[in-house]
Amino acid sequence: MNRLKQFFKLLLALAGLAAAAAYAAIFNNTSGWLLLSFYLGFLLLNLAALLFPLKRLTFQTNSPIRTAVGRPFSLALTVSSRKAYWVPGLSLQLPEYSVEKVFLAWYRGRLSETAFELTAGKRGIFQGTVVEAEAGDWFGFFTKRRRFPIEPEIIVLPETDADAANWALEISKLHRLDGFGERTAHIRNFRDYRRGDPLKLVDWKQSARQRDLIIREYEEHRETPTILLFWGRDSEDFELCLSRYWTLQNQLKGQAELQQFLVTQTGTAVLRDERQFALALGFAELPPVPEFKNKQLLIFTTTVDPILTAQVALWQKNNQVSVYDLAELSPVAVADFETRSGEKGGRLT
Fold first, then answer.
1. Digit-coded pLDDT (tens) for 178-221
2. 3-state DSSP call for residue 38?
3. Residue pLDDT, tens place only, 230-266
4. Most exposed of 118, 213, 319, 349 (fewest Cβ within 10 Å)?
5. Any alpha helices (H) in 193-260, and if so which ranges?
6. Do 138 and 89 meet the contact criterion of CB atoms below 8 Å apart?
7. What angle do CA 256, 260, 263 make, to 5 degrees?
C-alpha cells in the first residue's frame, strides 16, 4: 500500500513537471522558465532524500530492561550508519509497542541516541521486536520505510502491592524472621581464659576459686530456618496474589536470609532469579513438591483444596506450618482445612 501511494505521488510530481515544461515552451517567457526551474529544483531536492538506502542504518538497544506492570520505562535506541548517509527527516517507531514516533531532523548518519517512553501492560519477558524507520523530504512528499529487527530484553515483573508491603511487617514480627543465633541464659561450660575473650564473659567467682581467669560459655539457640512457599494454583486471583507475594517476599528478604520455593506451572523451583516471577503461571496439576524437615514453613495461597490440605498434613509432621490467604491478606487456621476445603468449592473466604 505504501509503495502504491509513492507511485501515485511520483506520477503527480511528473505531471506537474510536464505542465510546467509545457507552460514554459508555449509562452516562452521569463516567468515560465523560472517556474520550470523552481519546480525542477524543488523536485530534485525532495528526491535526493531517497538516494541513500535505509539498509545502511543499524540499531542497538539497551538490554536487559527491568520494569513492572503499569510502570513507565524508557527503551533507549542508538541509530548509526555504516556508510555515508543524509536525509532531511528520519522518523522511528516501535509499531508493536506504541504509535508514537521519534523524529530526527537532518540526520547525517552519525551515532545518535534517542528513547521511547513506554508503559508495561502485562507481565513476562519480551525479547525481540522491530523498529520501523521512515526517511522523507522536508514536506513528507516522498518517503520510504524499512523495518529492522532489534533484540531488547524487557523483563516485566509483577505490580507492587502497598497492602502486601504493610502486611509483611506483621508476618515478620509474628515469626521472628531476624532472630537467628541468639544467646540463652543457660551456661553450657566453664573454660580457661583465652586471649581475645571479652571480659564480660569472665566468671569472677570461679576465677577466684581457681586463681585464674575462667570464662563462661553459654548455650546458643538457632531459630528454626524459615522457608517461604508460593502455592501458585491457577485461579482468577492468580495475578493479584502473585503481585502480593512478590511485594511481600521483597520486604521479608530484606530482613533475613530466606529460602523460597515457587510452585507453579513449570514445577517446584527454588527462587534464584526474579525472572521466575516474570514467567510464573498457575498450575492446574500439582507438580512434585519437596519434603521439608525441622523448618518453619510459611505457605502463601489463594485456594484451599484437597491437594493442599493433604500436602499441609504431610508437612506438619516434621515442620511448623502456617498458611496465609493472599487474596484476603489474612492467616488461615491450619486446623480448619478439612472443614473449609468443602465450603464454596474450596475457595478461601
1. 444 445 556 777 888 887 777 778 888 888 888 888 888 766 55
2. helix
3. 999 999 999 999 999 999 999 988 767 789 999 999 9
4. 349
5. 204-210, 238-253
6. yes
7. 160
Residue-wise burial string across 264-273, b where 16 or more C-beta atoms lie within 10 A, e elsewhere: beeebeebee
Cα–Cα distance measured from residue 105 to residue 91, given in angstroms and rounded to the nearest whole number: 8
Q: Exposed/middle/buried for 333, CB within 10 Å: 0-12, 13-18, 19+?
A: exposed
| Sequence-ordered strand ranges (E) for the chain | 57-61, 65-68, 72-81, 87-93, 101-107, 112-119, 124-136, 143-157, 183-192, 214-220, 226-231, 259-264, 267-270, 296-301, 320-325, 330-332
Farthest-apart Cα atoms in the chain, separation? 132
SS3 294: coil
Torsion over CA of 156, 157, 163 and 167, rounded to 10 degrees?
-170
Taking alpha carbons only, the member of 323, 327, 326 closest to residue 337 is 323
